[in-house]
Amino acid sequence: MRASGPGGQNVNKVSTAVELRFDVAHSPSLPEPVRRRLIALAGNRVTQDGILILTAREHRTQEANRAEARMRLDELIARAEVVPKRRRASRPTLGSKLRRLNDKSQRSSAKKLRGRPSDD
């Protein structure tokens, strides 16, 4: 397809842009969890039919744009293969609770000193 960008008059004559289409929904090489993460990562670049569309038009040659599109697809799949760590719920330690309460009481007493002196 034709590309915008660098190349001058060459851009108007030569079709150097590349549109890579990858069928995520029906690919036998992708496990189901990776497929779900890939669709989530790709966002609006995936059609309702489950086809991922990547467009590369940065370079002047079609070969370079093809390589760029393939590299981006590889990076997306590699990111989708990483299983996110599950967050484990944790509780504050006793020491951190005591430090928080101590700091809170010190702040409170400092603020009390800022007020008007009492009539005592």
What is the count of DSSP helices, taking H or I runs of 4+ residues? Answer: 4
**Tertiary shape:** elongated
Order of helices and strands: HEHEHH
N-C termini distance: 87 Å
CATH architecture of the domain at 9-81: 2-Layer Sandwich
Largest sheet: 2 strands, antiparallel
Radius of gyration in whole Å, from Cα? 29 Å
**Uncertain spans:** none
Please name the CATH topology of the domain at 9-81. Double Stranded RNA Binding Domain
What structural class do the secondary elements suggest?
Answer: mainly alpha
Number of strands: 2
β-strand amount: 5-15%
Average pLDDT, to the nearest integer? 89
Could you characterize what this model shows?
This protein is mainly alpha-helical and 120 residues long. The protein has a domain at 9-81: Double Stranded RNA Binding Domain (2-Layer Sandwich), CATH 3.30.160. Helices cover 46% and strands 10% of the residues. The chain contains four helices and two strands. It has helices at 9-13, 32-42, 62-81, 94-112; strands spanning 18-23, 51-56. A two-stranded antiparallel sheet has the order 1-2. α2 (32-42) packs across α3. It starts with 8 loop residues before the first helix and ends in an 8-residue tail after the last helix. 11% of the residues are buried. The mean pLDDT is 89.
